[in-house]
């Protein structure tokens, strides 16, 4: 199953790249652990007809999925990549069996995950990220019943509008402090960001028109299960305390790059202070510190779907050039309109990052909060360990097992770093990113053994 | 623990035509949805107890990141229910207490 280019992730970035690379004459294997192409934003888009309530942006993904219908593209669904090996290629698992896809060029387009939103009670049944509820809407035709939306960020407004359109409006919107006024100077001077901005204002208008109670500047989140299995949600706004009851408490504080694969390969990474997350270090084509490995889309830094699509196409052009299929002049000529689309798509980012930065209480939550969901380690014990010598991710891992469970730190790393930063008075940027080991998704030893002899480990 | 679901059907949602078994109880599922979605449509309660303290957990991130939706499917333990499509006749067990990753069926 050899291909010129192996792409991991069939979201807008991976799909756009696959099409451009295949049209340029490369054989492409597109691996994605989901059953259908689409990624997060266009999840299930090929399979759903007539879900108008998800909005026009969602429906637009259909064209990208249709673009995969090209003889040069082999889409492997349900393929979970757990290792990229410099010599052997991309190693993936399906139904308990692993396969190796050798590749001359690799494009990692694994997208984003939602930023963890830890507070006392966030592990209870009845609490979920807002994006998770959106996945249920897209994939299962299920809408949240009697739900509260809490946190901040554009996706929160979008999910609220989608719930309203589906006839299941949220019972309240509880928004954490935003810094819109402070962020205003970051609005793009040109009118580039205008359509996105107008869309955002349209969402806000729809939430207002639906008469949904809207709490602003909310803090001190706490959730408990009531006797009848509902969720009691306590929070404060200023000096005032509130207590609301709901069936489902949805939280959201933005998304962060999924960097487990890029980190496990030992690629260079850098801290993005505006977005409060690490991302692989990339050149303007998406080329990583490893020349034949490219990264595109939200996995290389959050930019949204339109940016992901442009970045995917740009990376494909660079790979075509690397493979000798496109000269530099042709590459640059075709890149020009993509770069314009990219800068349009990114023009609102600085504003959004500044307006919806993460409140510190969710980076370093109260002592009783379970931070590591897998090993059930509380913020209090992490603080204590940080003050008594566990001043880094690795030391914390050996002393408390944070990040050692099946999620491999995906749900706790940002918080563990936040707590160590607070306790030791060091900037978060000096505390990560954590080392990630393969397999980046759990596979059984039997499955690894069945692959045959391993090449020597380089790390 | 069979609290009412915390979700309802969207307008025009397809019928739940598949039948799975959850700890001996029939659970209905919609073609194309994940096992985790079917479990959430069936009940608002826990689908798992943690190995460390026995706390109840339910599917959380729905995108393969958090591993809170681990269940046993057709005898295979520690399967991410959010990443597996529901199929007719699947036999699912909630995981109560410790089950190490890598355990064989
Ligand atoms: C839950 C969620 C909901 C979102 N909803 C919206 C929305 O409605 N509107 C919006 O504008 N933005 C939304 N976003 C932001 C969204 O991530 C981007 O706008 C856009 O999808 C990024 O495109 P991408 O191609 O970079 O990655 P994605 O679209 O995220 O695609 C990445 C793909 O990689 C696959 N993948 C990841 N790791 C592996 C692996 N190890 N092996 C195999 N496959 C793997 C995933 O299954 C996924 O299909 C959402 C984000 C999240 C996390």
Automatic annotation (TrEMBL), chain A:
Ranges for domain SoxA A3: 371-450
Signal peptide: none
GO MF entries: oxidoreductase activity
Keyword field: Oxidoreductase
Domain (FAD/NAD(P)-binding) ranges: 4-312
Entry superkingdom: Bacteria
Database matches in PANTHER family: ANAEROBIC GLYCEROL-3-PHOSPHATE DEHYDROGENASE SUBUNIT B
Protein name: Pyridine nucleotide-disulfide oxidoreductase
Source organism: Gemmobacter lanyuensis
TrEMBL record, chain B:
Highest rank taxon of the organism: Bacteria
Pfam family, one: Fer2_4
GO molecular-function terms, A-Z: iron-sulfur cluster binding; oxidoreductase activity
Transmembrane residue ranges: none
Keyword Oxidoreductase listed: yes
SUPFAM superfamilies on file: 2Fe-2S ferredoxin-like (SSF54292)
Gene3D superfamilies per the UniProt record, alphabetical: 2Fe-2S iron-sulphur cluster binding domain, sarcosine oxidase, alpha subunit, N-terminal domain
InterPro entries documented for this protein: 2Fe-2S-bd_N, 2Fe-2S_ferredoxin-like_sf
UniProt entry keywords in alphabetical sequence: Oxidoreductase
Protein name: 2Fe-2S iron-sulfur cluster protein
Originating organism: Gemmobacter caeni
């Amino acid at each position: 199953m050899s291909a010129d280019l192996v792409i991991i992730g069939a979201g807008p970035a991976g799909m756009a790249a696959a099409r451009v690379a295949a049209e340029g004459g490369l054989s492409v294997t597109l691996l994605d652990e989901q059953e259908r192409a689409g990624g997060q934003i266009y999840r299930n888009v090929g399979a759903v007809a007539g879900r108008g309530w998800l909005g026009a942006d969602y429906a637009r993904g259909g064209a990208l999925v249709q673009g995969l219908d090209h003889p040069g593209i082999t889409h492997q669904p349900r393929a979970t990549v757990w290792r990229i090996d410099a010599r052997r290629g991309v190693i993936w698992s399906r139904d308990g069996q692993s396969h190796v896809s050798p590749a001359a060029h690799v494009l990692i387009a694994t997208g984003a995950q939602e930023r963890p939103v830890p507070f006392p009670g966030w592990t209870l049944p009845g609490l979920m990220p807002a994006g998770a509820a959106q996945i249920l809407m897209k994939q299962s035709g299920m809408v949240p019943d009697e739900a509260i939306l809490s946190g901040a960020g554009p996706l929160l407004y979008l999910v609220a509008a989608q719930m309203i359109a589906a006839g299941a409006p949220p019972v309240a919107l509880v928004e954490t402090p935003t810094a819109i006024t402070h962020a205003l100077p970051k609005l793009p001077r040109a009118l580039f960001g205008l359509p996105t901005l107008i869309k955002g204002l349209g969402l806000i208008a729809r939430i207002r028109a639906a008469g949904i109670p809207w709490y602003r500047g909310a803090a001190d989140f706490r959730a408990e299960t009531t006797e009848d299995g509902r969720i009691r949600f306590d929070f404060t706004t200023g000096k005032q305390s509130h207590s609301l009851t709901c069936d489902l408490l949805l939280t959201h504080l933005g998304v962060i790059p999924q960097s487990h694969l890029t980190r496990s390969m030992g690629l260079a990474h850098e801290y993005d202070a505006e977005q409060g997350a690490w991302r692989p270090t990339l050149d303007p084509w998406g080329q990583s510190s490893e020349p034949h490995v490219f990264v595109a889309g939200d996995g290389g830094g959050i930019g949204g779907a339109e940016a992901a699509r442009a970045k995917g196409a740009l990376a494909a052009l660079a790979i075509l050039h690397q493979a000798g299929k496109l000269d530099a002049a042709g590459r640059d000529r075709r890149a020009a309109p993509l770069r314009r689309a990219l800068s349009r798509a990114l023009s609102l980012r600085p504003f959004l990052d500044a307006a919806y930065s993460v409140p510190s209480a969710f980076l370093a939550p109260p002592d009783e909060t379970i931070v590591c969901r897998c090993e059930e380690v509380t913020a209090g014990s992490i603080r204590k360990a940080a003050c008594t010598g566990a001043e880094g991710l690795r030391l914390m891992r050996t002393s408390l097992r944070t990040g050692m469970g099946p999620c491999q730190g995906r749900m706790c790393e940002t918080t563990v770093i936040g707590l160590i930063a607070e306790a030791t008075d060091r900037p978060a940027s000096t505390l990560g990113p954590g080392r990630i080991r393969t397999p980046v998704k759990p596979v059984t030893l039997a499955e690894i053994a069945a692959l045959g002899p391993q090449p020597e480990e380089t790390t | 623990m069979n609290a009412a679901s915390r979700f309802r059907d969207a307008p025009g949602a397809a019928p739940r035509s598949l039948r799975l078994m959850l700890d001996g109880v029939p659970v209905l599922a919609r073609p194309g949805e994940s096992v985790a979605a079917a479990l959430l449509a069936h009940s608002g309660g826990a689908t798992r107890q943690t190995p460390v303290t026995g706390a109840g957990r339910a599917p959380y991130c729905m995108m393969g990141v958090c591993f809170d939706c681990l269940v046993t499917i057709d005898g295979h333990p520690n399967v991410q229910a959010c990443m597996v499509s529901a199929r007719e006749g699947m036999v699912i067990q909630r995981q109560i207490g410790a089950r190490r990753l890598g355990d064989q069926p």
